Amino acid sequence: MINQLIKWQELSEQQKIGALARPAIVDSALLSTQVANILAQVKNQGDKALFTLTEQFDGIALSTLSVGAEQIAQAKLALSAKRLKAINTAYQQIRAFHSAQQPTDITVETIPGVKCTLKTEAIESVGLYIPAGSAPLPSTVLMLGIPAQLTGCQRTVLVCPPDKNGQLANEILVAADLCGISEIYTVGGAQAIAALAYGTQTIAAVNKVFGPGNRYVTEAKTQLSQQVPGFTIDMPAGPSEVLVIADEQANPAFIAADLLSQAEHGVDSQVILLSDSESLIAQVSAELEKQVVVLSRRDIAEQALTQSRLILTKDLAQAVQVSNQYAPEHLIIQTEDAPSLLNSLRNAGSIFVGAYTPESAGDYASGTNHVLPTYGYSKVISSLSLADFSRRYTVQEITKSGLASLAECIIELTDAEGLDAHQRAVTIRLEEGV
After folding, report:
1. How many other β-carbons are positioned within 10 Å of the β-carbon of residue 366?
2. pTM of the full predicted structure?
3. Which residue of 142, 151, 166, 260 lies most exposed, with the fewest beta carbons within 10 A?
4. What CA–CA distance (Å, rounded) separates 25 from 22?
């Protein structure tokens, strides 16, 4: 369970850093080498490597990598009406919020005759990695597939590890179909990321890959983004985390449930409570012990709790300060006047305001995206949105009179930088009237 209460006021600066330290991400030379070998195998052997590695790691000898339209149709028939309705409701909610993010081009005439435009264009091809560990993740399909669909990417490719029968979960296929994804492959792990980056006989390469995964997938994304020209990834990935700011009016049972909802993700997850009430912290601690025993993933949650924190601050202002320093993936505010803290909270992937706004809502159906920066990256990286599926570029159009107006400025600056050819590209047009 969580270690003893931490009193922030009594810590030295070094102890404060230690109190907010995240679980170490495994960074072993062995992992790097193992993944590099997998990538090389896929690069050199293509589909053959995908079949071999899927049998080696997933225990299934596939006859094909592709999922056909018939399998998708069967998946719809196999699910209950209640399950189909839930997936469709989540789809509509997420689509409604993301539809409002559509960008518009911006054109500015900076001076007469000089027109500059910022344009936005969908990334041509994207790959979506959907994990399939202890349970299918249709929510991740929706969170990645809907922005790709709305942005208008020409090609959206979904990869997912197969089960022992060589199949993907019905929920995965139904969610993919809602998002208009027809290119689906039963392959996972580092080899799937390699296929998306290099391309194989069956899977053509993509420009950008999205989605969470285990440490092999994360390592593959990191290595490939540094090796393959024109290939990039969504964001750095780390263990899941949540931070709750609460006062004495908060419901301790709600807080414990929120903390456990993240703790159950993995043994390296981290959950933190910041409160100015020692009494509330004690009640939350008791609730954690009470609630964790009924979880199906109790062992995982209990291990995660051993590296989590219950921190007493002198007031809510200090709690805000500590939260900004930590920069959590998920931030939950359960205080008497929760909205009043928003203006002072800067660093968080996604913020959940009020007693009836659990993090679970954002994971599934409120409408916001659950693909978020972890490990402190929320200080500099945004939550996933339509912008991540597009690229921005500029266009400029200048008349002769517009160029004449800029000439003195350009000539002076090219003189300063000693770039004669740059200067001549301007003066030749004005001297010769080209």
Report:
1. 18
2. 0.94
3. 166
4. 8
Catalytic site positions: 329-330
pLDDT tens profile 314-367: 999 999 999 999 999 999 999 999 999 999 999 999 999 999 999 999 999 999
Confidence bin at 28 (pLDDT 50/70/90): confident
How many CB atoms sit inside 10 A of residue 117's CB?
13
At position 318, the amino acid (one-letter code) is Q
